[in-house]
């Protein structure tokens, strides 16, 4: 073998002992997610290991609305493009909707629990929190839907990893926090949820609970490896949901929620756009016939079209204005979270900036 990386490798990039380097952020959630991907790759016959990539969002505690969306995924994609890893694992909901031609088609392993949950002091249900109760979340989508349900609660901006955010409830600083159920489920904490929000109460971020696994477009071996992890039903659902975001030209901090579920050969999509104050709530839904085979030719196109149908119905109801207003009124209050960057006092691998806007 020559000294060049992959020197003498066959066309598809395989070498006899090639180990795929899976790039991941360093948080407990990120490494747990990437660990599942590593195990799945190994099970599919592709040796793999994790490599931690530090991102700007992990060291900068400014609100994500200010430091910009995509800080969590850009650094990982740069590492992948620059051959510092061979595979990148993202929380799908944090990825911009624009396709990135540097990478092979995104693979989506089977999705985890997609809805949001409440973690509250004394396991108090959301409806029974007292007037003025302090509920932590930064995501405009969550703020908007929570404010629509309970205009009398006090929504407190909050970032930080799962442990940090739940810690504000334990310490009594907050009465409750709202988190993605998937984050709790993947780290073995779903039993700590006081309540699971229903689709009627709160729609999740498009692609919440799903992973996006990428490889370089020119690395045929890694691309084939990640393609082996794709779960057709999960891919259909996230395709429909993210199409709504793309048509609305809204980013991952937009007050847009969506869930698509396959049931008896039909893909059902429901989406919401809400003003951050919760005073305007637009909701639309539609279904598309997929048939028995989620991987069939045409299924992805049907999912995309379904997303467009629902997005266009939202636009007809005035969604463009709600999204535009939300973009101009990002919350500037300082989030409740430790100000100490991880290299000065944080635990190794811990990320104060664990909550992206959700
Ligand atoms: N917003 C940041 C983020 N990105 C992915 C998850 C959780 C896992 C997932 O949704 O797949 C979270 C935390 C949260 O929203 O509570």
UniProtKB/TrEMBL annotation:
Signal sequence residues: none
The name this protein goes by in its record: Porphobilinogen deaminase
Catalytic activity: 4 porphobilinogen + H2O = hydroxymethylbilane + 4 NH4(+)
Domain Porphobilinogen deaminase C-terminal: 236-315
Record-annotated Porphobilinogen deaminase N-terminal domain positions: 20-221
Function field: Tetrapolymerization of the monopyrrole PBG into the hydroxymethylbilane pre-uroporphyrinogen in several discrete steps.
MF annotations from Gene Ontology: hydroxymethylbilane synthase activity
SUPFAM superfamilies recorded: Periplasmic binding protein-like II, Porphobilinogen deaminase (hydroxymethylbilane synthase), C-terminal domain
């Amino acid at each position: 073998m020559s000294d060049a990386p992959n020197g003498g490798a066959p066309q598809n990039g395989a070498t006899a002992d090639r180990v795929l380097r899976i790039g991941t952020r360093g948080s407990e959630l990120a490494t747990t997610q990437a660990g599942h991907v590593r195990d799945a790759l190994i099970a599919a016959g592709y040796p793999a290991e994790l490599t931690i990539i530090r991102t700007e969002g992990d060291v900068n505690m400014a609100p994500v609305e200010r430091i910009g969306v995509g800080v969590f995924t850009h650094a990982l994609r740069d590492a992948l493009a620059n051959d510092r890893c061979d595979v990148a694992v993202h929380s799908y909901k944090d990825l911009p909707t624009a396709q990135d031609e540097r990478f092979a088609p995104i693979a989506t392993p089977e999705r985890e629990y997609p809805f949001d949950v409440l973690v509250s002091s004394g396991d108090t249900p959301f409806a029974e929190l007292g007037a003025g109760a302090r509920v932590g979340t930064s995501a405009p989508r969550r703020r908007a839907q929570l404010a629509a349900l309970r205009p009398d609660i006090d929504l407190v901006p909050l970032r930080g990893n799962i442990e940090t955010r739940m810690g504000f409830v334990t310490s009594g600083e907050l009465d409750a926090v709202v988190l993605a159920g998937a984050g709790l489920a993947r780290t073995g904490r779903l039993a700590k949820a006081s309540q699971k929000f229903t689709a009627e109460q709160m729609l999740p971020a498009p692609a919440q609970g799903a992973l996006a696994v990428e490889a370089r477009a020119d690395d045929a071996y890694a691309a084939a490896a990640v393609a082996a992890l794709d779960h057709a039903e999960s891919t259909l659902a996230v395709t429909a949901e993210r199409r709504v975001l793309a048509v609305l030209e809204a980013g991952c901090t937009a007050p847009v929620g969506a869930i698509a579920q396959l049931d008896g050969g039909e893909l059902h999509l429901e989406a919401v756009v809400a003003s951050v104050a919760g005073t305007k709530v637009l909701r639309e839904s539609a279904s598309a016939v997929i048939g028995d085979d989620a991987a069939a030719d045409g299924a992805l196109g049907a999912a995309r079209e379904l997303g467009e149908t629902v997005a266009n119905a939202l636009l007809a109801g005035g969604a463009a204005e709600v999204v535009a207003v939300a973009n101009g009124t990002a919350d500037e209050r300082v989030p409740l979270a430790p100000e100490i960057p991880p290299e000065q006092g944080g635990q190794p691998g811990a990320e104060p900036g664990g909550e992206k806007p959700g």
